[in-house]
Amino acid sequence: MLPVTLAVAISSTTVVALMGVAMVLAILGHMTRIRGLLTSGLLLLFLATFGMLLGGFGAWSASPGPAPDPLRGDDRQLPPNETVGEARQNRAIERGDGQR
Fold first, then answer.
1. Which pTM was predicted?
2. Residue 28 and residue 44: Cα distance in Å, rounded?
3. H or E segment at 60?
4. Each residue's pLDDT tens digit, 52-89
């Protein structure tokens, strides 16, 4: 769970800036035919994409659950300050599925 926590601490602006720098490096590498520049640009682009996915997953798992919908008869409520991940863990413990 540690990498997800670290990825959430990185702002989306940083990830987008890293993607921009990576694109510039990759394009310059193509134009100048310098293989190392092209490779570093593509590597940075893949790393930024991976960081974006980790950050998105971390933000999703730390977000509160969906609001109840009274029109559908949805009366379930999350306890205050409980995230989706915590709710899943608590349900698993209550069912006796084991501890994760």
1. 0.57
2. 14
3. helix 35-61
4. 888 787 777 766 666 666 666 655 655 566 677 777 78
- Cβ pair 59, 8 in contact under 8 A: yes
Cα 45 from chain centroid (whole Å): 16
Residue 4 has pLDDT above 60, yes or no: no
CB 48 within 8 A of CB 55: no
**Dihedral of the alpha carbons of 54, 76, 81, 57, in degrees to the nearest 10:** 0
Which residue type is seen at 29? G
CA distances from 94 to 58, 74, 80 (A): 24, 21, 18
β-bridge partners, 61 = none
